[in-house]
Every structure is written in C-alpha cells, then in structure tokens.
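Example: Reverse transcriptase Ty1/copia-type domain-containing protein.
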Amino acid sequence: MADEFSALLKNNTWSLVPHPLNVNVVGLNLVVKPITIHTVLALDVMNSWPIHQLDVKNAFLHGHLYEVVYMSQSPGFINSKYPNYVYQLNRALYGLK
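Written out as structure tokens, the predicted fold is:
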C-alpha cells in the first residue's frame, strides 16, 4: 500500500484541499474485485491456458476528468496535519465511476 500511495503522490494524482461545503466526497474504490479474479482463473482453466504470477504495484488510467471530483483520504494514510482535508483529483483513478 505504501508503494501504491507513493506512486499516486509522485504522479500528482490529487491535491489535498479543505473539504468544500455542499459537495459529495467519494470513498475508496477497490481496484480488483474477487469475482474478477475468479472469472479470469476460470477462463484460464477452461482453455488450458498457462497461468503466470504477476505483481502490479500500481495502475493508472491518466484519464481526463471533466468535472471536479473529491475523494476522502485513505485510511492509514491520513495526513496528520490536515486530517479533515480531502483529495481533489487531478487525474482519473482506476475504478473511478
């Protein structure tokens, strides 16, 4: 998680800002759901495909945001100087709807 968080900071994914009034703040989105892993492994077995291990430390879409999106700080990575601030996303995150 620390590697992922550091990569997000390095890529200027968000800016830490005071929580604006009257806006929705999205929570965290998990990148991979267990059903996705189950489906991919089932396809591998049904098609006799070889299975290899792959570690992905971080994934970015770098998509453009056409509206302002605020996200809550990640549990375990809350800025101690600004615990009530939120992230204003500068880039789209994987899994952002």
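Residues 2-89 form one domain.
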